[in-house]
Amino acid sequence: MDGHDRSAREQQATQFVGELEDAGVVAVALTFVDNSGITRVKSVPVAKLPAAAAWGVGMSPVFDAFRLDDMILSGTHAGSPVGDLRLHPDIGRLTVLAGQPGWAWAPVDRYDQDGMAHPQCSRLLAARMVEALAEQGLTAWMAFEVEWVVSAGDGDEFVAGCQGPAYGMTRISELSDYSVDVLAALAAQGISVDQFHPEYGAGQLELSVAAESPVDAADTFVLVRETIRAVSLRHGLRVSFSPKVAVDGVGNGAHVHLSLWSDDTNVMNGADGGFGLSATAASFSAGILHRLPALLAVGAPSVASYLRLIPSHWAGAFACWGLENRETALRFITGPAGNRHQSANLEVKCLDATANPYLVVAGLLAAGLAGLADEAKLPEPVTFDPATVSAQERVAAGIDQLPSSLEEAVAAFEKEPALRAAFGPELATTIVELRRYEMELFADSSPEEIAALTRWKH
Ligand code: GLU
Ligand code: MG
C-alpha cells in the first residue's frame, strides 16, 4: 500500500462520515477472523474512520496465535508480543448495523506498518486466490449457509429456545417477532436472503443468502452471524453456531455453495460432462474432492467439528460426490430446468462455523485450482447413502470416510502441498500448531465437555 492508496482510502471513507452520523452511528466495529475461527474486533468513533482507512488501526500480530480458550499459543510464526499490525477497513463493505443501533461495521485487511500485506491475513489470502482464479479466466460465486440454534437459558447450558417440531411452522409462530427482526435487520443491511426456515435440531434455524464473489461471501457470513447474534440478544435469546451444541442432537453446518463462471457463463451447466458439468468445472470440483481431508483442517477445524461430522446426519461425512445427495461431502445441485444456467452449483457440506470463512474460501479455491492444474477427473457420482452399504462395498465404489478426528485432518493438511503452498509457511504452520493445541486441550475431555467448551465461542 502506497501513499496514493492511502489517500484514496481516506477520501472514500470521508464520503461516508456524514451519512453515518445522520444514521445515528457513533462507532464502527472493525472485524477480522482469527485462525481459531473467532471474530475479533477493534472499533473507532465515526470521525476517526477516514484515518483508520488510510493508516489502519493498531493491533498486535499475537492474534494469529489466539486459541479457542483465549490463551495464546507460543508458535513458530505467531504468538510473540512484539510488533504491530494495522487493520485497514474495507470501506466497500461498510454497513450500518440494524441490529445494533449506533454501530456500523466493516471487515479489515491486515497490513504491516510499511503497508505490506501481513502473511497471516486470511482475507488478503482469499483475495489473492480470487486473483489466481481470474488468471485462469474464471470467476467463482459462493455463499455460506448459516445454521444456528437459539437458547432460552440464562446459563451456559443449552435450553432450546423453541419447542416446535423440525421444519415445523410452530417454530416460526413461537419465534415470529424474532424471525421478522432478523430478516428485517439483514434486509436493512443490504443482505440478499434467499430462504429462512426451522431446521432439524432442537431450537435450530437456517438462513441462506445469495451467492457473491468469494471474499464478499466470507464477509457476509461474518455479518449475518453477528446480526443474528445481536437480534437474538435483544430478544433474550442466546445463539450458538457451534458444530455440536448438544451431543446427541444434529449439528450446525456451514455449507458452502460454489459455482464457477467463465465469461458470464456458469461452467457447471450446459456442457457434455455428467449433469452438464464442463471439463473445467469437473476438474475444479475433483481438485476439491481429492483434498477434502486436508481442507477439513481449515473447514472443520475444531475438536467439536468431529462430533458433528458423522454419517447419516446430512453433514457429508464421506469423501464422494453425487447429484442432490445429502450424505456426500459434495452435493451437486443443478436447480430447476430452465434456470440451470444460473443455479447449478456445488455444495460443500462437510464444513462448519468454527472455521475462519476467509481460510475456507482460500482453501476451496486453492484446491480447485490444483485440480485444474492436474486436469483432475471426478469419479462416478454416488447415488446412495454410503453409510447404508458395507465397508467392502464402499471400498469397491471408491468411497472413503472423511477424517473422523481433527488429528486425521491435520495429518492430511500437513501432507497436502497445494494447500500449504497457497497458505504460505507462516500461516500453514500456525494453523497446524493451533489445531494441535486444541487436541491437547481436549485430550481427556468427554464429548459433553467438548460441546460445552465450544458452544458459545463462535
Ligand atoms: N445440520 C446439517 C449439518 O450439520 C445439515 C442439514 C442440511 O442439509 O441442511 O450440516
Ligand atoms: Mg440445513
Taking the sheet with the most strands, its summary is: 7 strands, mixed
Named CATH topology of the largest domain: Creatine Kinase, Chain A, domain 2
The radius of gyration computed from the alpha-carbon positions, rounded to a whole number of angstroms, is 21 Å
Give helix % range: 25-40%
Integer average pLDDT: 97
CATH hierarchy: architecture of the largest domain? 2-Layer Sandwich
3D shape: globular
- In total, the number of strands is 17
Supply database-style keywords.
single chain, about 450 residues, alpha+beta, Ubiquitin-like (UB roll), Creatine Kinase, Chain A, domain 2, seven-stranded mixed sheet, six-stranded mixed sheet, 17 strands, about 20% strand, globular, binds glutamic acid, binds magnesium ion
Folded structure, characterized:
It is a single chain. By secondary structure, the chain is α+β, with helices and mostly antiparallel strands. The chain has three domains: 3-118, Glutamine synthetase, N-terminal domain (Ubiquitin-like (UB roll)), CATH 3.10.20; 121-144 and 255-423, Glutamine synthetase/guanido kinase, catalytic domain (Creatine Kinase, Chain A, domain 2); 146-252, Creatine Kinase, Chain A, domain 2 (2-Layer Sandwich). It is 38% helix and 19% strand. It has helices at residues 3-22, 49-55, 122-135, 169-174, 176-188, 214-234, 279-290, 292-299, 305-308, 340-343, 357-374, 391-396, 406-414, 417-441, 447-454; strands spanning 27-33, 39-45, 57-59, 85-89, 95-96, 103-112, 139-144, 146-151, 193-198, 204-209, 238-240, 256-262, 265-266, 318-323, 328-333, 345-348, 400-401. The strands form three sheets. Strands 7, 12, 13, 14, 15, 16 and 17 form a seven-stranded mixed β-sheet that branches. Strands 1, 2, 3, 4, 5 and 6 form a six-stranded mixed β-sheet that branches. A hairpin with a 5-residue loop joins strand 1 and strand 2. Helix 6 (214-234) packs antiparallel against helix 11. The chain is globular, with a radius of gyration of 21 Å. Residues 147, 250-251, 253, 308, 313-315, 326, 349 line the site of glutamic acid.
